[in-house]
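Incident log, structure service

09:12 report received: a user says their structure output differs between two submissions of the same chain.
09:20 pulled the input from the user's history:
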Amino acid sequence: MLEHLSQYMPPQAVKIVIALFLSFLIGLEREERKAEGEHYSFGGVRTFPLIGLVGYMMALLSGGHFLPIAIGFAVVGSFLLMSYRHKLSSQQANGEASVLSLKSIYTSLPCD
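09:34 re-ran on a clean worker, output below:
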């Protein structure tokens, strides 16, 4: 069935769907963890796919050059830093699982 579906979609669209789906799964897991505890947690089912899509598009538009990917990573990293500083100011415990999982989504997307 997937072979029939992939015949009607261009290869880039299949890669975008895969990137969004994997990012959504990680965001879903983060939403579950957020619902279990009272602690502040960054991201969820909307944030992770959005960042995954931004990472994919930056990798696609960079054309193999390092500078656009580095700029995109710096922008996403600055938003993560602001979120982490907010988390540290609002509670005592500090975990880095959300930040590390979001960075891994941004840096490991297929771009070929």
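09:41 both user submissions now match this output. Likely a transient worker issue. Closing.
09:42 reviewer note: The longest helix spans residues 11-36. Residues 27 and 44 are 4 Å apart (CA to CA).
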